[in-house]
Structures are given as C-alpha cells and as structure tokens.
Amino acid sequence: MTRWLDPDEQQTWRDFLAAGQLINEALDRQLQREAGMPHTYYMILVALSEAPGRSMRMSELAARAQSSQSRLSHAVARLEERGWVRRERCPADGRGNIAVLTDEGFATLAATAPGHVEEVRRSLFDVLTREQVRELGAICSAVRDTLER
Amino acid sequence: MTRWLDPDEQQTWRDFLAAGQLINEALDRQLQREAGMPHTYYMILVALSEAPGRSMRMSELAARAQSSQSRLSHAVARLEERGWVRRERCPADGRGNIAVLTDEGFATLAATAPGHVEEVRRSLFDVLTREQVRELGAICSAVRDTLER
DNA sequence: TCAGAGTACATGAGAGTTCAACTAAAATGA
DNA sequence: TCATTTTAGTTGAACTCTCATGTACTCTGA
Question: Which contiguous run of DSSP H or E holds residue A56?
Fold first, then answer.
C-alpha cells in the first residue's frame, strides 16, 4: 500500500522543492551574470582550487564537485576552451586524466567568489535564524549520509 | 567587505547542495525510469490534475509548477506530443492558452504517483525524525517567502 | 477610437545534461 | 603470459533549459 503524504508532509515537500529551486536559480543567475558560467562549473573550479597543486584526477573531481563523469568531461572541455582549466595525462595511470586549474581560472574564481558568497547569504543564511541553520545542517547531512550510500 | 562563510556554514552549505542534488537526481531517475519523463514534467501534470477541470491557463500553470513560461511552453509541447496534455485557446482572452490534462495523462499520473511518493519518502521523509521534518518545513517556507518576493 | 504600452505565449538558437556506446589502459587469474 | 574483466575517461545523440526575440492580442488614456 502506498503511504501517501499527509497534508503537512505535502506542504513541506512542496516548500522544499520550491526553496531548493529558488536558491539554485538565484545562484545560477548570479554566476551567469558575473562570470558567464553555471553553478556546476563554479563548483568544479572551487573543488580544483582546494586541491593540492590545484589539480585533481577527473574521477575524484567528479565526486568532489558532485558531478557525473560524463558531465564533468563535457564541462572541463568547456572550461578548457575558456582557458580556466587544463588537462594533463596522468603519469601513474595511463587511463587517468588530471584537471589543473590555470592561473586565469583561479583569478576568475577569486574575482567571482565575493559576489557568489553574497548571493548564498542572501538566499539562505540571512533568511534563517542561527538555530535554523544548525538544524538545516543536521538535516542535510543526514540526507547526504543516507543517499550517498 | 565580503562576509565569508565560517567553517560550519561552509559545511552546511555543501551538505545543503549535495542533499538537494541527490534528492533531485533520485527523483529524476525514478520518474525517467517509470514514466519516461523528468520531474519538471511530472510537476506540471500534478498541477493540472489538481485544477478544476484538470485545466489551467499557461501562465498560472507556470507559477504553480514553478516553471518559467518558456520552459512550460516547451514542456507542454512535448507532453502534447505524448498525448498527456492538450492545448485550447482561451475564450475569455485571445492571447491565452489553456492546458488540459487528458485522460491518458491522468492515467499516467495515477500509475506513476505511488512509485514517486515512495521515492520521496525514501529520499527525504524516512531519513528524518518527525521533529526534523517540522523544522525543515519552517525553514523552506521561510526561504520561499523571502525569495518569492 | 486609435496609437502606444503591456501581457500571453511560442519559438529558435545556444548551452548543459543524460545515457549509451566506445576507446584505452590497468588489474585479475588461470 | 594471455584472455577476461574492470576501471578511467571521452564522445555523440537526444533531450531539456535559458535567453532573446517574435507575434498576436488586450488595455490604457488622450
């Protein structure tokens, strides 16, 4: 038997979907405007910028940037065209590729980060109380732990 | 001055993004598998199914299904090809179009809903305590109220 | 009553995503 | 050692989304 959502759950679910979408749209619009890239590309640059040598194997990068391999592959191809990332063959594993954040890529990131953080605050943190932020953290981390296997 | 995220906020933000994406991916995969449509299309069918006469003006439908007008227009075109939705001219306003859920569309929805709800529970509600669900509801509704203007 | 502004929706191009191949290089193991 | 399997990554096609633009209709006010 299907366990349908009761009215409260329905409401929560719809608010959850709406909130998530509103935030993602705000992020995408802001980054598209300021840096001409979608949020998924931004996450890739961030992940690279935090890696030692600002470089990472493609598959690890996909995991860190929450991207599928295929998506990452296409995305890095675009980022490479813009000169923000470069690909090198992996010496240790002939199958591997290493994505490297270029200086230009890093500069773009540095220039874009403040506006992005501002948008993140505006759309999420400024809306919530400290307590709610804490709760949200616990909730999302629980979801993540469960769904990430 | 940029108000950077402190480490806790960083963690919350990343968990938030990851959780949202995991849930959306789970939804999309499930619906693609079971009904051959993305979640956005499903939301359109749901909105229509709840409207009087299972029909709605395009612009109102866009609002209810959290879609841009353009996206909705493309989506309804596809749904029409599959015979799940039909478009009629609006008698009261020559500019308007009315989207109508067909019987086939309704049947598809009815057939798909149980599996979808199951997925929603698996990815969100079953993961959280009652209390967390309550908190999440308040949080998302606050975000929604703020970002929807 | 009619010109101009605004609204409703569609459409086409460009960009991103997904999915299913496909290539090439390890790893496995008999 | 060699055939098989697994892993890493890319690619192309089909699809969706966004953005800008276009078309048709309605509303407004002089």
Answer: strand A55-57
| Residue in A33, A132, A115 with CA at minimum distance from that of residue B16 | A132
Radius of gyration (Cα) for chain A, nearest Å? 18
Q: Tell me the one-letter amino acid at B133.
A: V
How many angstroms away from the CA of A46 is the closest CA of chain B? 12
Low-confidence ranges of chain A (pLDDT < 50): none
Show residues of chain B in contact with A22, CB under 8 Å. Answer: 143-144, 147-148
CA–centroid distance for B56 within its chain = 16
A23, B143 in Cβ contact below 8 A? yes
**B46-91 pLDDT per residue, tens:** 999 999 999 999 999 999 999 999 999 999 999 999 999 999 999 9
Tell me how many degrees the CA angle A26-A28-A29 measures, rounded to the nearest 5: 65
